[in-house]
Amino acid sequence: MYITQTETNPEECDWIQQVRRGEDAAFTPLVERYQNAVYHLCYRMLGTSTEAEDAAQETFIRAYNAIDRYDTERKFSTWLLSIATNYCIDQLRKRRLFTLSFDDMPFFDLADNGPGPEGTMILDERQRQVRQLLRSLSETDRAAVVLRYWYDYSYDEIAEVLDLTNSAIKSRLHRARLALAEAWNDQDGQPQPLPAHGMPYATQKV
Amino acid sequence: MQHKKFEAWIFDEDEFEAQDEKVLRQHLQECDQCYALKKTWPKVETFLITTPQVMPAPGFVNRWQERLESQRKQRERRQTVTLLAVSSGGAGVAFALFAFALLLHYQLFPQNVQENVAQVVDWMLFLDVAGEILLNLARTLPTAIPFPVWMGFFALTGAGGILWLKSFRKLAGIFAQYQGFARWA
Questions:
Q1: Which chain B residue has the Cα nearest residue A36?
Q2: Average pLDDT value for residue range B27-46
Q3: Bridge partner list, A2
């Protein structure tokens, strides 16, 4: 879960203005600040670290190229995550065309999260279980669930990111929760407990 | 519909009053499906929330900068190739027109060939008006304008094109250098 930040940071506004004036280096602190949030969203959506890295990089490139079109009245993080979400949804739709499930692919490339070999194995197993659960959802429902449970976004914020109405989000989340509960019951075995030093990272709400 | 209301309560989507709890409890005794959901959902929710965030590999920002730079270079290369293609195409068309005008000027085309060329151009373009204009130009321009003026015109156009290309490349180089310095300084 993320610490609450309700509006665009004045410091970020300054950086954005600098980028608009042609000072490209001012975009770097924005990448530094949001790399984890964007990467994590892409990872939850796409399921592999290789694709997540590519999608996160592409998200920042698109944001950089479209910075002149960014409406400063909107929260920067919401705008950025909406770019990431839409890119991931597009990728998932393209992938569906090739009918290749990401769960058919091997996963050896999780980022090093800190705990030792045993802890890493448990974390990998947890991540696999999360992927299995999220796989039961459509692209848009998956995005809504990710934004709700890992980013603590309100229905209004999710609606803004996905360009849907509040009631559509509510309905999608309801359907997604039912699907998740069903997928949970279908999964073999119980989920792995977290290792002692593998607790969720202290993070900020973006 | 009634069922959905209980699910919404279980998911904590709707306002849940104290008196609703009794209604829900009663429903759970009658409905196995909702009872199972009530038992499962909190586990799923906790599982999702407590699963750690996945971080990118170290050096993400550097990789992003490299990627941006590489895309920028690709775009510049594409622009240069497009520019060269357009310039070459333009030069080719100018040369063809020049050759055509030269041949017309010195009456090197037999009369019937001139007519055939005009007919083919007219047919290929499917533009009667444009064909007419081109024909008129082809008939009048070479004779109306003296040959040295033609020569001067093409020489100036060619020199201007080369000068423009050279200054564009030089300015692009200076701009790229400045950008490279300012971007990551």
A1: B55
A2: 91
A3: A203
Cβ contacts of B121 within 8 Å, gap of 6 or more? B131, B134, B135
CA distance A180 to chain B (A): 7
Mean pLDDT across chain A: 82
Contact status of B62 with chain A (Cβ, < 8 Å): no
Nearest to B41 among A23, A177, A203 (CB): A177
What is d(CA A76, CA A72) in angstroms, rounded to the nearest whole number?
7
Number of other CB atoms surrounding residue A50 within 10 Å = 11
Please tell me which residue of chain B has the smallest CA distance to A203.
B53
ipTM > 0.95 for the complex: no
Of chain B, the end-to-end C-alpha distance in Å amounts to 61
Determine if the pTM surpasses 0.95.
no
The H or E element containing residue B99 is helix B60-105
pLDDT in tens, A102-131: 555 544 444 444 445 555 666 678 888 899
CB contact at 8 A, A177 and B11: yes
Is the CB of B56 less than 8 angstroms away from the CB of A111?
A: yes
The segments of chain A whose pLDDT lies below 50 read 1-4, 106-115, 189, 194-204
> Which residue among A126, A177, A184 places its CB closest to the CB of B51?
A126
Contact B52 A126 (CB under 8 A): yes
Q: Which residue of A has its CA nearest to B58?
A: A111
Residue found by looking up tokens 């410091």 in the block: A11
Q: Which of B11, B49, B64 sits opposite A31 (nearest CB)?
A: B64
How many CA atoms lie less than 13 Å away from B168 in the CB half-sphere? Answer: 12
Q: Kindly give, in sequence order, each residue whose CB lies less than 8 Å from that of residue B74, ignoring residues fewer than 6 positions away.
A: none
